[in-house]
Amino acid sequence: MAPSFEPFFAAVREHLGPESVDTTPETVARYGANLLPGGDLPPSGVVYPASAEHVQAVVRLANTHGVTLWPSSTGENRGLGFKSPVRPGQVVVDLGRRMNRIVEIDETLAYAVVEPGVTYAQLYAELGRRGHKLMMDTTSGPPDGGILGNTLDKGAGYTPYFDHFGMSCGYEVVLPTGELLRTSDGGLPGSKTQHLSKYGYGPFLDGLFVQSNLGIVTRMGVWLMPRPPVIRSFFFSFPDDEDLGDIIELVRPLKMNNVVPTLIKVTSDVYAFGTEESYPFEKTAGKTPLPFEVRKELREKYGLGSWLVSGAFYGPSEEAVQPLIERMQAHFMKSGKARYISHAEAEQSRVLKIHISTFSGQPTADEQGLLWWRPGGGATWFLPATPMVGKIASEHQALSRRILSEHGFELAVEYVCGPRMSRALHILLYNRQEAEERQRAARCFLALLKAYAEAGIMVSRAPLDVQQEVMGLLETTPEVLSRLKRALDPAGILAPGKYGIE
């Protein structure tokens, strides 16, 4: 059935009110904009529901008129696509503008219930208004990013509550047919444990709505952590690219034995100083990638080596935490290459203070400076997993450096390390205003994807313009997801193509 946009928008205005639709060229262009190599993807228009009931009405009308929808919460993820749909012409359902309430905060059982528009900055401010008794986990992305959207895209943070999906509990979901589903214990009328008992009774359904196009989540519970009285970070700088393997071998036992409560970050030099610097074309005579001599000069300016290792401890007092910090000093300094940087010293550096904020559950915008490393503000994320084995990490680093260099780009990567694997966040930064560089960035991303797949390594998240290619790497999974899609969305109205699911 050919989509009937004008009758659809007229029906939405009738059901939700005249302010609920915007099809002006300026709005369409703004919602289609992204920073990815594939270019902008303008929708047909934007609708603004104010409640789950509104979302149900929009979904039912989309079924009637054959219109495809693209749900978005706050749409602030720079490296994966902003608010833009996966295909041009899809209608953006902006859940963030009017559905932005913190529905509940339970200070005894430490959880909040949020709508899609609730941002990290908003929840942090509300917890502060209540005396900061509770601490949320945050990303190092923009403070105006959405908690619900990040969770559904398998986003993560850095504190002990880093696993945002794992720390979510109880969803309210509008299915593609317009039915309302409440997960965990939420299916019981009057449930008092929907946001406490994650797995509930029967099959676990929450995962169906993570990185999928099988429903629109309109409300979510998120678990919070009691804020510790003292948070103290530690930092170690390592001088050489080749030190990564040794670093991983030092980090793994700390996380395997749960010695350090936070995740441990291993941040490359360009990722670190790129938050404050722009590419120094005047020093390179316009050539890319960054020559080693200039890289070294920028490291020295910020007191960095090739790698920065960071983590944090929590405790009741300075006296309780200090022995833990000293244990880290002894552990990392035995390498003979590490330089220790104290919490107090790091607080004086914008490059280092980013990490203190994330380990403290405090949203920060400082990392967004990376977007201006190259003119034109282009950015796309490549997120492979790296097993926590030094030899493998070294091989992965060499692979990434080679491919990026061949295409004229720098390695800006942060390995966020758990006990068994790290999420290796590569930020591919390029000039989106230059067609040749944009095309080169697209080729570079696909070369990375192919090389890692051949090495048996999958990515955990994917930008809009390559989701089809990423899903195509998997066997059996796409067909199973297609069968689920046909069962739950028989008319195919909900974001066809999202994550490569048809």
From TrEMBL:
One of its GO terms (biological process) is lactate catabolic process. Residues 39-227 form the FAD-binding PCMH-type domain. Pfam families: FAD-oxidase_C, FAD_binding_4. It comes from the Bacteria. The keyword Oxidoreductase applies. One of its GO terms (molecular function) is FAD binding. Keywords: FAD, Flavoprotein, Oxidoreductase. SUPFAM superfamilies: FAD-binding/transporter-associated domain-like, FAD-linked oxidases, C-terminal domain. InterPro entries: Cytok_DH_C_sf, FAD-bd_oxidored_4_C, FAD-bd_PCMH, FAD-bd_PCMH-like_sf, FAD-bd_PCMH_sub1, FAD-bd_PCMH_sub2, FAD-linked_Oxase-like_C, Oxid_FAD_bind_N. Its cofactor is FAD. This is 4-cresol dehydrogenase [hydroxylating] flavoprotein subunit protein. It comes from Hyalangium minutum.
